[in-house]
Amino acid sequence: MVDSAIVRKWVLDANDGIISTTGIVQGFSGAGASDETVLFAAMTLMVTGGLSLAGAAYAEAAQDRAAELTLISEEQRRLTMSPDEEQAQLRDHYVKRGLEPALAEQVAAQLMSKDPLAAQLETEYGILDGAPPATRPWIVALRGFFGFLSGALPLTMAVVFTGDDWRLSVALTVVVISLTITGLVSARAGTGHPRRAVIRSITIGLLIAVLAFIAGNVFEVLDQFIPQIDVDGDT
What we know:
Blueprint: H1 4-30, H2 35-81, H3 83-96, H4 101-114, H5 116-125, H6 137-160, H7 164-191, H8 194-225
Helix pairs in contact: 1-2, 1-6, 1-7, 1-8, 2-3, 2-5, 2-6, 3-4, 3-5, 4-5, 6-7, 7-8
């Protein structure tokens, strides 16, 4: 069974790809760009956006992993130097959780006799199994890249196979379908009501598409009033 946290992260990354590509396509279309320019912009964003997201995900995962390795090393040092004190901390933890002191002492003693490091890491830091996450930073980075790619690719392909006359309607249709899918998957993963998730995703996506298209038209109009500068620097 797929971890719901991984699914939710994919939804976020895919939505980034969908919405970012929507903004680029509609913005360039609104500015009257050629088919080739819109396609080049969409494909460039698909690659650079995915790489950027992957780099950020890698850096975050690597930092988290390094922090947890430091905690594990420090906790191991404490267990070696003062095991009785660590067991007393474990007992106090379960007393605060509602156990009687005598029972808390028994629980702490049993946990410490089996795997003291895992017991301390779980109660103090929430690190399960006494080890850093099984997921490596490179895996997290690849998930981010392909998550963004999965969101950006359908709209980019729509631009490839659609001419200028149909680009707007086809692009918006693809956006609605893509955001509907991610909204349903997000709700399925336990992040909310399906209908609300879909409506929220589509509303945001279409709003960005409309704003980007309007911005493109504004820039096209402004461009007519901006003096052109030649290579010699003369206006």
